[in-house]
Specification:
Layout (H helix, E strand, L loop, with lengths): L2 H5 L1 H5 L20 E8 L3 E9 L2 E7 L11 E9 L8 E3 L7 E13 L3 H7 L1 E7 L4 E10 L12 E6 L11 H4 L10 H7 L1
Antiparallel strand pairs: 1-2, 1-6, 2-3, 3-4, 4-9, 5-6, 6-7, 7-8, 8-9
The structure holds manganese (II) ion.
Length: 196
């Protein structure tokens, strides 16, 4: 079995694909550098940042979402690696299932890391740029505590997600409230919930 298959073991163990419409796999994107931020109304609302690397989407759950203010360092809890097809997932995860609730593709685009992202992950400081429809420029993910668990899924790791200095910095903007909609369907979480 492939390396990506092994990395997705935790993801698959948490889900019953007979019940949830979430993807279980997927092929690498043409460029290998897709990022997505999904808005997810699970038990607690949060934004899931996912970065494509080596056949999976590395994932962090960020309760407050991104800010263009460099002083707003947002808690980002590392979660299990997700399959590549997850970058296109929008829908309702059934109540009672893992992560049950509505999810939209809040932003998506390409990410680039100036150095070696694997070394930066080990070091606990990922420095990268995001070019999406809403989110732009330089960003940081900085590990504050916790280390990779035995199967390398980073269970329980706390990181901080924050804006790096560049021309996109703007403390006056309230990005998550200005632009609540999906970049794929134009729908908000509330629209999706009303659709059933
Ligand atoms: Mn989530």
């Amino acid at each position: 079995m492939s390396d990506a298959h092994d990395k997705l073991r935790t993801y698959r163990e948490k889900r019953d694909f007979g019940r949830t419409a979430e993807p279980s796999g997927g092929a690498p994107s043409e460029t290998g550098d897709v990022f997505v931020i999904q808005k997810h109304a699970a038990r607690r609302l949060h934004y899931d940042l996912r970065l494509e690397l080596d056949g999976v989407m590395l994932s962090w759950a960020i309760p407050k979402g991104p800010s263009f203010d460099t002083k707003q360092r947002r808690l980002a809890v590392r979660t299990e690696d997700h399959p590549l097809d997850y970058a296109g997932f929008e829908g309702i995860i059934p109540k009672g299932e893992y992560g049950g609730g509505a999810m939209i593709v809040w932003d998506r685009g390409r990410w680039t890391c100036a150095g070696d992202p694997r070394a930066q992950l080990d070091e606990g400081h990922l420095r990268f740029t995001l070019e999406g429809e809403k989110v732009h420029g330089r960003w940081h993910l900085l590990r504050t505590k916790g280390f990779d668990d035995a199967d390398g899924n980073g269970k329980g790791e706390s990181w901080l997600f924050f804006k790096g200095k560049d021309e996109h910095v703007d403390p006056s903007r309230d990005l998550v409230n200005e632009r609540p909609e999906s970049i794929v369907s134009g729908k908000t979480i509330e629209d999706l919930q009303a659709d059933g």
